[in-house]
From TrEMBL:
Xref: SUPFAM superfamilies: UDP-Glycosyltransferase/glycogen phosphorylase
PANTHER family in UniProt: BCDNA.GH08860, TREHALOSE-6-PHOSPHATE SYNTHASE
InterPro entries, alphabetized: Glyco_trans_20 (IPR001830)
One biological process term in Gene Ontology: trehalose biosynthetic process
Signal peptide location: none
Coiled coil: none
Domain of life: Bacteria
Bilayer-spanning residue ranges: none
Family: Belongs to the glycosyltransferase 20 family.
GO MF, any single term: alpha,alpha-trehalose-phosphate synthase (UDP-forming) activity
Record-given protein name: Trehalose-6-phosphate synthase
Length: 464
């Protein structure tokens, strides 16, 4: 294999595993091949600073054996490409929320194309003939097509980190044919789950008239693409090591001390409408109503990190969460007990293992999620002798792997409340058995397995 070139909307230092996500997933392959990581610099230039649509300065730095190459964006491109099309159209539709998509702002699509063309122009001169290019996520769907258009013949793969909805939902995007055609410029498409892969198969055959070639290979638009599910994992040992750190241990001891006579339930999310947070609070409210023995004994800590607060849908969600939290606490709270502790800010990743370990139950109940790594981190953080219980939405990609969790339909608040009750009163032997199987699975299919399996498949795929 030649040099790995990773491309994503944002770039992180692969030496810094505290950054999580792709930094952990790609560090080994990037370092081994003296790789290049390319993406947006995070810098937005105003017009007065020389920001021009379709243009951006290239920066290169070394991070050990890896070259980091980033491009600035002007304000107009950033707002229309990132906020407008990527997160105003693609994000809601890919998470099944067509009602929240803004299809009317035509300039956003133009900027989305323009930024992908900019990335292609800036990346192409940095490429070597035997490079292997791995492009990540919905911001950059057309990037391979733009690279092909200017003569790049390297092997190119794509991985979609978010869900891919069924064909009729995809078809709601006015430009869906163009987007799906762009995917055929890749050699290998990676999805989080078998369900996503099946949706792609149905779409390209039904909407694009693709010819199935066997083994999830499809031919359309004079090209053949291979598609496969690669469920992303975590670095289990790294997260466990984080749990032995001072901040994690301090957090664990503090929470165990404060809640020594109570059971702690935990939710850790971004404040996003895909995460099912209002439904989760209502399920907890139902638990307190229908299982009164949990009053004064069960506390839900819900961490909801701020996200895109300038967008109306997110501001509305924040107000809704604050309203539901207030209603639950005013109805059931006591002088010495508040049912819900709602924290609208980020929490240090170094504290998360301790918080997870101190919690009897984790509520990971998105309405739709590509994978959801919090579920896997919760499993990795547990004491195997006295593990907590994972309550997991069946609509998270992780549910395909984590079948020993208590799987729920987050839209069914009563059934979710029943699952929480089951989790709170699950016998120790059953908790141990479930946790052992879950831990084995996340170890088998960890983040290193994910990256190596994807790259192996990409190298085996015949392009064109």
């Amino acid at each position: 294999m030649g040099r790995l070139v990773a491309v994503s909307n944002r770039v992180a230092d692969p030496r810094n595993h505290a950054a999580g996500g792709l930094a952990v997933a790609l560090s080994e392959a990037l370092n081994k091949t003296g790789g290049l990581w390319f993406g947006w610099s995070g810098k937005v230039l105003e017009t007065a600073q020389g920001g021009t649509p379709g243009e951006g300065e290239l920066h290169q730095t070394q991070a050990g054996n890896v070259t980091l190459a980033t491009v600035d964006l002007c304000r107009e491109d950033h707002d229309a490409y990132y906020l407008g099309y990527s997160n105003g159209v693609l994000w809601p539709v890919l998470h099944y929320r067509v009602d929240l998509a803004d299809f009317d702002a035509g300039g956003n699509l133009n900027a989305y194309r323009r930024v992908n063309q900019l990335f292609a122009r800036k990346l192409a001169p940095l490429l070597k003939p035997d490079d292997v290019i791995w492009i990540h996520d919905y911001h950059l769907i057309p990037l391979a097509a733009e690279l092909r258009a200017i003569g790049c013949g390297q092997r190119i793969g794509f991985f979609l980190h978010v869900p891919l909805p069924p064909p009729l939902i995809l078809a709601a995007i006015p430009q869906h044919e163009w987007l799906m055609r762009a995917l055929f410029a890749y050699d290998l498409l990676g999805f989080q789950s078998q369900a996503d892969l099946d949706h792609f198969s149905r779409y390209v055959q039904g909407e694009a008239g693709a010819e199935p070639m066997g083994e999830y290979r499809f031919r359309a638009f004079h090209r053949t693409v291979r598609a496969q599910a690669f469920p992303i994992g975590i670095d289990v040992d790294e997260f466990a090591e984080l749990g032995r750190g001072d901040e994690a241990m301090e957090t664990y001891e503090m929470m165990r001390g404060q809640y020594s006579t109570r059971r702690l339930l935990l939710g850790i999310d971004r404040l996003d409408y895909s995460k099912g947070l209002p439904q989760r609070l209502k399920a907890f409210q139902t638990l307190l109503s229908e299982y009164p023995e949990n009053r004064s004994s069960a506390t839900l800590i819900q961490i909801a990190a701020p996200s895109r607060e300038s967008v109306d849908a997110y501001a509305d969600l924040r107000r809704e969460m604050e309203g539901i939290t207030g209603a639950i606490n005013s109805e059931y709270g006591e002088l010495d007990w508040m049912p819900v502790r709602y924290i609208h800010r980020s929490t240090s990743r170094r504290r998360l293992p301790g918080l997870c370990r101190a919690s009897a139950v984790a509520l990971v109940t998105p309405l739709r999620d590509g994978m959801n790594l919090v579920a896997k981190e919760y499993i990795a953080a547990q004491d195997p002798d006295d593990p907590g219980v994972l309550v997991l939405s069946r609509f998270a990609g992780a549910a395909e792997q984590l079948k020993e969790a208590l799987l729920v339909n987050p839209y069914d608040t009563r059934a979710t409340a029943q699952a929480i009750q089951q989790a709170l009163h699950m016998p120790l032997s059953e908790r141990r058995s479930r946790h052992q199987k879950l831990l084995e699975r996340i170890r088998q299919q960890d983040v290193h397995w994910w990256s190596s399996e994807y790259l192996r498949a990409l190298m085996e795929t015949e392009g064109g």
